[in-house]
Amino acid sequence: MAAVFVTTFLASVFFPGAGDGGLPGAVPAATAAVSAAPPGYGRPVWADEFNSLSLDMNGTGTGRWVPRMRAWGTPVAVAHHDKCLKEPGGYAPPGGTPLDLTLHRVNNGVMTLYGRRIPDRRRAAFFGPNPDPGYEAMCGTLDGSLSHSQTYGYWEVRLRQVNVSLGQHIAIWLTPTDGAWPPELDLFETIGANPAVPYSSADKFHFVGHYLDGNGVPQFDLGYLNVGTAAANTWHTVGLEWTAQTVTWFLDGKVVFQMDAARFGTAPMSVMVTAETSSDWPGQTTSATQWPLEYQLDYVRIYKAPSA
User: Fold this and answer.
1) What are phi and psi of 9, to 5 degrees?
2) E-only strand ranges, the chain
3) Averaged confidence pLDDT in the chain
4) Is 68 within 8 Å of 87 (Cβ atoms)?
């Protein structure tokens, strides 16, 4: 989620399929790992089915995913005052000893990503670049910018939230591989809860596009669906189709949101999967926050546009 806040958001909310301004009804959960790609896309040109853990620990192109925000070159989402460090679980601060936190786990074809609190006795070593007391947690991250990028096509992820609690946030997004911002296309976002944001809770799925307006000012449009408490923690398939004309979001094979593609340019984009805690978007964690933050990916699949 990029650094554009609620005052901008309120002028650009969309409720797709809700003619009276209310929320659409609940969307049924996905029941099988079958692609929901629109007709004509054929086989994926790049995919991770998570049959193994393939992390590129040093950002040299030796694995599918860099476990940090490589494209932006920052340890956290700095502009958001994020307090969840994006590094491998065995990270050691300068001059310190490594932590031993499991942030990525693959089992039976499923990738589980965690956000775990840094032990209190170690937090002093994790003072970050923000004007805050320091990092409170470490979050498993997947940055695919060295593996694959493209202009136009269809991106699809099958996922399940396990625990996204007060002050926690997860996102699957596309950003230009060169680190420029905006544009940004968020396939999927949720906030565990933020009392200051009325559309925040883990059963409200967000679909977001960030762009520059005619005056060069960052803006974003956001659509969201209230899927209901029962469906919030079940498997869902999220998809995004980017063509020269439109950007279209899908949830479980149904169109849920659409924007004009001209706002996003043509720079190739790559996938990034991240979590944040105690940042501007989800708000602060408290003693009521449940840890660890946890969510799962069954696959990530990328398809070339039929005419490409």
Assistant:
1) -60, -40
2) 13-14, 46-48, 84-85, 104-107, 110-117, 137-139, 142-143, 153-163, 168-176, 184-191, 204-212, 218-226, 236-242, 246-251, 254-260, 269-277, 293-303
3) 84
4) yes
| Nearest-angstrom CA–CA distance, 23 and 107 | 36
Q: Give domain status of residue 30, yes or no.
A: no
Q: For residue 23, tell me if it sits in a domain.
A: no
Condensed to tens digits (0 to 9), the pLDDT of residues 174-226 reads 999 988 999 999 999 999 987 777 777 889 999 999 999 999 999 999 998 99
pLDDT digits (tens, 9 = 90+) for 29-70: 333 456 778 888 999 999 999 999 999 998 898 999 999 988
Flag whether 17 is in a domain: no
Exposure class string for 66-94: b at 16+ Cβ within 10 A, else e: bbbbbbbebbbbebbbbbbbbbbbebebe
Determine the 3-state secondary structure of 146 from DSSP. Answer: coil
Task: Residue 128: give the domain boundaries.
Answer: 39-303
Residue type (1 letter), 299: Y
What are the residues whose beta carbons fall under 8 Å from the beta carbon of 97, sequence distance 6 or more?
Answer: none
- Which residue type does 248 have? T
Tell me, what's the pLDDT at 126?
66
pTM: 0.86
Q: Does the structure show a pLDDT above 80 at 4?
A: no
SS3 for 143?
strand
Residue written as token pair 């932590």? 99
